[in-house]
Amino acid sequence: MRPADVKGLPQPHLYKQGTGRSCDPSSAGNATQVAEARVVRPIVPATAVAVLLLLPSALALTTPDLPPYPLREDDAGSGRDAGTGPATAVPILPGVVYRGDIHRDLYHQGIVPGDYADWYSFDAPTGALLDARLSGLPGCLSLWDAAGSTQLASSCSLAGQEIRLLLHVGSAGRHHLAYSGDADQTYFFSFALDAIAPEPARPALPLPHDDAGSGRDAGNDPREAVPVSFGIAYDGFGAGPYDPADWYSFPLSAGDRLQVQSTTSLRCDELLRPDGSSAGPACSESYTGLGLVTLLDLVADASGTWTLGLPLGAPQSYRFSLGLDAPAPDVRPAEDPTVYLDQFDHPQDDAGSGRDAGNEADAALPISPGAVYRGEEDVMTDLSDWYSFHAEAGQSIRLPISGSFVCADLYDPGLVQVANVCTFGYSASVVSPGWVASSSGTWRVHVETVVTQTYAFALALDAKPPALPAPVGQL
Predict the structure, then answer these.
(1) Burial of 137 (0-12, 13-18, 19+ CB in 10 A)
(2) Average pLDDT, the chain
(3) CB–CB of 366/358 below 8 Å?
(4) Which of 225, 269, 275, 402 lies 20 to 30 Å from 415 when distance is taken between CA atoms?
(5) Which among 226, 224, 230 is positioned nearest to 214, based on CA atoms?
(6) Taking a C-beta distance cutoff of 8 angstroms, is the pair 402, 427 a contact?
């Protein structure tokens, strides 16, 4: 943002420290008054004089040392701030990955109004397919008309997921993309017309992908779908915020009966016709097992290449299958709670017990303070682990845990959840604050994760928790 862009802001008052005189030339006439004030000798105690003499130095130590404002910005390589409306929008071109910065609450002190949004402009012909992508912290990306008065589309992210707009432009001419961030951040974005927008800069995915045996990640866009066949149960993996969806393609003729099964974590799968129109979402259906499954059964009303989208939302392993004029192969996990996990070539050994920690509170596995434990979870068959320990009223409870997007919930003896702690990221560690036990008895810890992995945790009572090993993460 240039200085000229900052209108109506209160100008800073500059003072020479310790003199009380303004550097503003208009205050020069006060010099005599200041000089006269210096010859006055008020009768005050010596201690008060010392305090007054030290006061300027004390204030100098507590005054925030702020750098100059406005900051030097270079949104989309423009050498300036993109502005907060169409009048100051920065022109951009399709097929380029751009970088921008937002300073929503500068230094989080409210001293200077922040840079809460950035606007960009581009021209598009009537009917062009716009693909706009943005990678950053939580925020919203929106499409506006030439005047910036009508919002044509909008999409938001919560946990730093990639934001994507995909729609046909209704009229020719100038359009605007606006990004409103919820925090100070650097973001990356791109757009394309009648093409796939370049992928914005992002952290590398934590694991090599082999979705449906393709040797790659199934694309986040229907045009990047992995081809699949009927009658096969496929495995895939969603890497979380930077892998928001996996798309698969297959041929159908009008009149074909399609059946689909997919394991899911509370999401709705999307089926698209060859022309890109939606054939309707299929949402999770609960059943009496250890997971959820999506079931879809329909008769195709068009011939061509259909696509199935699995919006992931959070890191997770999943399984899906297609049936053509026949039932889709079963992808439901085994319903026997004692089943060994397919992805572990050994029985579970949660907290060194030689078994799986119970999936319910009344089957919790006992643990002791001061020890470092490991546990395993599989999003296909083992969605939670419960542990128990004894605590006396007044004791401080601390729960360090490490893993990828894993949470530990603390329950009191009455099975009321009183606190929780989570890791937000891949192979991350976190130590809870000290919670004070409100009553004596058996307390419980409920561990949940959204990705198949080994996690580490510990328990401390009135003590410093032990250090955890480096997180193992996904398996």
Answers:
(1) middle
(2) 74
(3) no
(4) 402
(5) 226
(6) yes
